[in-house]
Amino acid sequence: MAEARLASGLWVSAYLARLGQAHIPAYVLARGDGTAGAVLVKCARLDGSADLWAREYDLDSGARIWSQIAGGPERDVDAAIARQRGFDPDLWVIEIESRDGTTLLDHDGLG
Length: 111
Hints:
CATH topology: hypothetical protein tt1805
Mean pLDDT: 91
Structural class: alpha+beta
Distance between the termini: 16 Å
Number of strands: 5
């Protein structure tokens, strides 16, 4: 059975609300297509490094999972985002600030 997908804009709003409840600062760096735009989540660790997360399909289970697609110096992660935006103008980019790397992407309700 196909997994129901929440519109991207609604998912982003819910994610930002959940981050706010956890006192994790978050910003929309790029607003994508409200219905079907893909979402990238950049986690700035406030020490000059960052991680970049994207939603991918797990071919084994058929589930949509969050995978880290880049990590390291923040300027390198920003360059990876710029490349992705270069070929996907409908892409959402959310930046969070979390010294310990907490993204809440692995919490129930954010699938």
